[in-house]
Fold each of these.
Amino acid sequence: MDRIMAIAHILGYPRIGEKRELKFTLESFWKNESSELVLHQTGCELRKTNWQKQQDAGLEFISAGDFSYYDHVLDHSVLFSATPTRFGFKGKALTQQDYFALARGNADQPAQEMTKWFDTNYHYLVPEFGPETEFLINAHEFLSQIDEAIATGAKVKPNLLGPVSFLYLGKSRAADFDRLSLLPALCAEYAVLLNELTYRGIEWVQIDEPALGLDLDQQWLDAYKDAYARIRNNRPKLLLTTYFESVARYAPNITALPVDGIHIDLVRAPEQLGVWLAVLPSHWVLSAGVIDGRNIWRNDLENTLETLIPVEKKLADRLWIAPSCSLVHVPVTLTHEQNLDAEIKPWLAFSDEKLQELNVLQQALTHGKESVKESLAASSNAILSRRLSTRVHDKKVSERLSKINTISPERTSSFVQRSTLQKQRLNLPLLPTTTIGSFPQTTDIRASRSAFRRSEISASDYQAIIQKNIRNAIEQQLQLDIDVLVHGEAERNDMVEYFGEQLAGYTFSQNGWVQSYGSRCVKPPIIYGDVYRPAAMTVEEARYAQSLTTRPVKGMLTGPVTMLQWSFVRDDQPRDQTALQLALAIRDEVDDLQKAGIAIIQIDEPALREGLPLQAGKWADYLAWAVRAFKLSASVADDSTQIHTHMCYAEFNDILPSIANMDADVITIETSRSAMELLDGFGEFKYPNEIGPGVYDIHSPRVPSVEAMEKLMERALQVIPADRLWVNPDCGLKTRGWPETIEALKNMVQTAKNLRLKLV
């Protein structure tokens, strides 16, 4: 006899489409090559497809409100009319162009600040709050999507970012302004919206409060009680949704809230299940996040059922099953992966496959394991195949790691001593100018790369094309009078994938795209086994670029922590061990570059802050191995070889001692969207080495004036001595076009020259 039907649901589905339809439509719209109607039709078609997949997988609800044309946090700023006052949109019905101006900037205003969504590689637009903020519900777009979902005939579960997390994730540039003072007014508008959903017959609303995974002080904990008391009446049932960390320590606070259930992440924090089973209110549901929403490895369904069956016996229909978090962090489907390694492909599950895994778990809990025995057998066979594969472990890597303690992570001399030698070798002016690495990836470059991969052009012809682009990049920089050059990275598809393709232990998908922000999609490589470097990866291009000029050309590498964070990482060994393997591979490349005569080597680590655990009690362990990995990759450099690193789109002030301990000779950081606020912490900390605060936002088509850049650098000079300051953009220029790039860099160089005259 069947038991009560287990309820399966998801917390969100990827927005971009199986073939990145949203990306291409967005970029076409931004170029005025397609209309707003086409953009909205694409959005409608993607939502319809996503909902049908969820229905086909037998989910109890389809997830609505999770689709966005750019970012869901930005959507909430618009939903509650909380757009920055500096844009002048108050009281105005926002157009589609206004919406994108918030994300990308316009002629008058830079874009809203962008930073990482907790410890993921997804970027959100930071809400701006202040004493002038007034909330007013602006729910047309949100409710239209809910109505679309209702029209499918399925049960609909809208997704909302909760009011406390929404305020927590924002910021204020007004001194001493308390964002929590806005909570009553904000909750009043949430109450209006929930009332609208009740009117539409919505039974459940998923209300995300991911801030509960962080270290919260008493003021923010108390805010939950206040907020949910204000939205307790005339509303659908609320599933309080948490993810990325355990929230067990806040169980007394959470169980006192007037909600109707909780979702917990049992992939990241399986230890919290026992706590919640002991304290769960008798009328609440427990949504168990048992399928990894952040990685692509197939679920061990038999093992998961061992966990769920006792829970189901206790809770019956109060047990819901789900992925650990939204599936926006994993690719859409394996359907189009025709070239994936035949042995490795069965080990993987993208979003659509995770929907099927949910269905199998649901059927097993409802009808018994015998009803899905073939699916369970396939899962077990895939798990066993991966465990026994001879390709996962490499003896040479193990032997090298066993001797890693004999390799010093420290440079030979102190920064002060190294700096003297580097200044003599490089002979750079005050406030030297440089860029972060990449130059525009034109249509011609991409077409040539694709043709080479399809064997339509020879290796020698492709090399000639790459050298032509390198030569052009060098010539453009010389004309602009930039001091430290880059080769432009024309040969690179992505700063992680390019290196992964040349390292053992990696495999790659064709269409495993994941949204990073807006139309920016990345295709993370898959680390399935031990990593090592079979041969040099960048030396040929660096040597050629340096042969074209007497000015220094930076060797450009991606650091071990970023290689780790921006890949789908194997889960069968500790992450720190994989990081050390990557560090040794990058170390070998650093050594080869300096032997080839490259005087400056940049080892990018934009993901260092991203990898930081959400709770401070776990920071020390992570920072110890992450910093060690970077230093191991760099310590092979001679004293006269200048090591740069780059970090962007994150808050660094709370880990500045660790950043200083990395001991890079020069660090470049993103600071323009925060108007140099991020630099203040480096000044207060008295950061000892050289630093290049970004003077313009490369994620916006807006070209700032010389005056605007000078203003930023003058603020930087109040914090950092001139002899330790560099002038550079926020990040790489891959996504920009050449005309705007040249104009912006021309202004940047002029800014440095103007300031040098003032400082003499």
Amino acid sequence: MSQETDLRFIDFALAEPIQKAVTEIGYEQPSPIQAQSIPPLLEGRDVIGLAQTGTGKTAAFALPLLSRVDLGLRAPQLLVLAPTRELAIQVAEAMQSYAKFLPGFHVLPIYGGQAMTLQLKQLQRGVQVVVGTPGRIQDHLRRKTLRLDHLQAVVLDEADEMLRMGFIDAVEDILKHTPEGRQVALFSATMPDAIRRIAKTYLRNPLEIRIKSATTTVAAIRQRYWQVSGTHKLDALTRILEVEESNAWLVFVRTKTATVELAERLEARGYACGALNGDLSQAMREQTIERLKAGTLDIVVATDVAARGLDVDRISHVINYDIPNDTEAYVHRIGRTGRAGRTGDAILFVAPRERHLLHAIERATGQTITAMHLPSIEDVADRRMSQFKDQLTEVLNSQDLAVFETLIADYQRESDVGLGEIAAALAYMVQKERPLIPVEAEVSRPMRSDSAGSGAGRPPSSRRRADDERGARPPRAAAASGGGDDVPMRRFRLDVGESHGAQVKNIVGAIANEAGIPSRNIRKVQINAEHTTVELPADIQPSVLQHLQKVWVAGRPLQIAPTDAGASAGRASARPRPAIHEGSRVPRKILSARTEKGEYKTKERGAGATKRKKPAR
């Protein structure tokens, strides 16, 4: 089978609930490793997949193997071995999202450093899938707390990395504990002798799949990445659009839904923007591309499939708003710029937990992607002033201003005002809709589905603004703009707790990033065994709450809902309460302080510790 394929996920015989989840996520076309691995794994064959990290291996084994899980059996049927804690968590979270429509499905990540009691509790409840590191899986096998009698399949993910880390003996020991008739899928970037020996010993007539990774990218493309931190991705994108010397932009996201959502939010900020995804008819697709070529669009937000073969001379920048899971997809994406001898820019947004994908891209392409500093408010102001001066120069050189010179001279004589003051007043009138010195809230407006505003600016080539964007904007509610401490608050319940591995920093980070609420306005985070309560600004928009319903923390959707605890306001409520854990014998993590940057520090407190007396208010 060739590297390029016209297969789509709907062509696979996946279980209907899995197919439904794939459609909702927005996956369209499988990567080469997915296209070649899913059919044989669905048939029950053993598979060896040789492919670089970041080629989409998780979906390659998760989708077919989850399709065969028996939900009526609350015992481990699928075991995935991963070399690191981070990869185990990532695979478990992916499994949970793919199994969204499987009722009663449970997946458990198991790794060292996590409380053994928590793992034992969840194993006793019953899980269908276990994802873990070899050492901790061995611990449970020795304790007989993990039984593999009903195991249907084993996956060795990044087998060569497990060999490098010294886990190969543990892997063999675990395989000896598995039933004889189980299916095995082995994925590895390379095939050292030790891995080849394991394959010959424990796999039955395996199908070997080799995927060649892209090794070169266009030398004319400058490649940079921004590590997502603090500033919301949409705010960061807005600043980059403001400051970069550019012509037209192609912004890549993972899903069809995201193309529409992001395009609408950029349009609300004053950009000439359109979406390009697989749901568009051919006529609509061609119309969007023609508008981009003609200059009536400056930004197109696209999925990988929709942008295939796109060749538009104007595209100077490619933004990977969502980092691709497939290194080849990255190469194809950035290849949309820097074509036919022209130079181009490619910028990659990387969340801290996605750094392994960045490293995989660098290894596969053999090129270093350099870190970039996010433009500051001052950078945006400098850029706007420079553009304003350019506009002045253009008008002075191209327009007959005699009538206006007479008008100004008359006004100066009648009003006894200096020419400098008149010029300053006229400049203010011209730029008041888009201030030369922007405020933070204008450039860093949080992503909200009800957002509509003048925006922080646009690329130099974009001078179009809808009529309803020309008025001055009223200030946003404090919940969105980062208001003071006197924000009216309301208590909400989140459907995630200590038993799921939730921590204060996860919850605060998720709400701050997804809802655009400053961390100082996320208060009284109280973590219980099965749920968490938190105070948020009372005027939070219903559309934001609806979005937060689907945000995942610790492998679960938040399912946020208001409680009957009422509202609070003022400085008294700004002090965060400890994260409270149920059970008198369990050590409790308490919130000791917030740093000046809004981050939380925690410390351990034993069950017998005396509670501090609340300060008088």
